[in-house]
Amino acid sequence: MRIKQSKKLRSKHFYNGKSKVETSITRVVLQDDLSNNPHCIHGPCILWKTSSMSSPFYGCSSYRSRKECPFFEKFAPNKQIHLVEHETHPHLPFVLERQSRLKALETRGEISYCSTCHLCWQNQGELKTSHQHHHVHKGLSLSQMKHPLSILEPLSANKGEAQFHFTKLTMNVIMSWFKKNKWKNVLCLGAPSVFEALKHENLGARALLLDIDDRLASFYDMNEEWLWFNMFNNHFFLGNESERTFQEFLRSASSDLVIVTDPPFGGKCELIARTLNAITQYWRLYHGILRVPQIFWIFPYFMEHQIISCMDNLYMADFQVDYTNHKTFQNGTGGRKSGSPVRVFTNVDGICLPFPENLGYQFCAPCEKWVSPNNRHCDICGSCTAKNGETYKHCRKCKRCVKKKFSHCKLCNRCALPDHPCNLFRDKSIADPKRQ
Ligand SMILES: C[S@@+](CC[C@H](N)C(=O)[O-])C[C@H]1O[C@@H](n2cnc3c(N)ncnc32)[C@H](O)[C@@H]1O
Ligand SMILES: [Zn+2]
Ligand SMILES: [Zn+2]
Ligand SMILES: [Zn+2]
Ligand SMILES: [Zn+2]
Ligand SMILES: [Zn+2]
Ligand SMILES: [Zn+2]
């Protein structure tokens, strides 16, 4: 069941092009150091292996559709590594132009923003000459420019960025955790709503946004607020300049460090975990090797096994994260009956993360954490066992809790849906308990 869902997700959000690679399972070949790998415009490439190709290949870390990033190079084990000048991202001149226009904005005077060219200006003449048939937001104030998410269209779900924004309710819950715990230093890794809210709510927290969306150059200062960053290979598009800002943020984060990340759901856990670990290591260099940052990694519940196998200090908090612009990942009309499948993976004690009681969330005393309305504590398992928003039931033969719709099949000796392909499980011996 889990495999089926995760494949479906991948095909929707990540493996969206037409190349052969996308129909087979693609795995990361983990390497300690990526710097000697070939680079595409998105930074160092990843060594990938697919079930349909015999030898590994280097490909883009972030965009897996060849339409988005065509880079492909077969792995040749004995090939000499030549240090070459890496190609810069073709958007670089536009990013610099956006940033200089932002800095030139004056407090008085209406601002226009063209969401076709991603440029802002105050000079009335510019509209007539350059943006006649474009989609232009007119009459913006400087303070409106500080809320880019209300101006920017979310980038398409089919592209690598897969931008889905949290609902107000989800944001309120996340903000309530910040208020309660009084955290002071927050890195938002692909979480622009959290960054925007932290900037405007007076919580006394400093925040830095790391995101690949280069349209943000029209709204945020690139020396203080936003760094153009690829979270799948830990790459800063503007090199040393951004790295200095980033290191300075970590150096002055002596009291704590919170990392909130909401990556595109097709993103490989190994790569996200590697970036989270790298950030942790940099921070420890300044503040001691035993320090542990607070991590919030927002991802679907059925990725639990993959996440925990990359970062075993995280657990799945049973809060359902909702998005404004995602049909499946929201509550109510059009969403799943049992609510959004997206959860928060964290290392913060459950007792520090209350969920809204008025929505039916309950505190489980033996587990010392909040759980979703339909979750029940199983005395045999010793925990609240439901994962998907429904109530699970205990199977004595399997010795664990399983989904409500499952029943125990004597032939397979496992719990499965009543119409499961029984012979398939028996013949191929793939009755893997983790799959439930
Ligand atoms: C699923 S959205 C999360 C947005 C979040 N729900 C919010 O409301 O703030 C994914 C975010 O990650 C960013 N992103 C996508 N690919 C990225 C990459 N390779 N590196 C860094 N950021 C990336 C997108 O631009 C987007 O802001
Ligand atoms: Zn690329
Ligand atoms: Zn324009
Ligand atoms: Zn419990
Ligand atoms: Zn149980
Ligand atoms: Zn069973
Ligand atoms: Zn069976």
UniProtKB/TrEMBL annotation:
Q: Where in the cell is it found?
A: Cytoplasm
The keyword Chloroplast appears for this protein: no
Instruction: Give UniProt keywords alphabetically.
Output: Cytoplasm, Metal-binding, Methyltransferase, Transferase, Zinc, Zinc-finger
**Pfam families per record:** N6-adenineMlase
GO MF, one term, reads: rRNA (adenine-N6-)-methyltransferase activity
Where would you say this protein principally sits, based on its record? cytoplasm
Residues in domain CTCHY-type?
359-423
Q: Does the keyword Methyltransferase apply?
A: yes
The positions making up the signal sequence are: none
Which Gene Ontology cellular-component terms appear in the entry?
cytoplasm; nucleolus
- Name of protein: CTCHY-type domain-containing protein
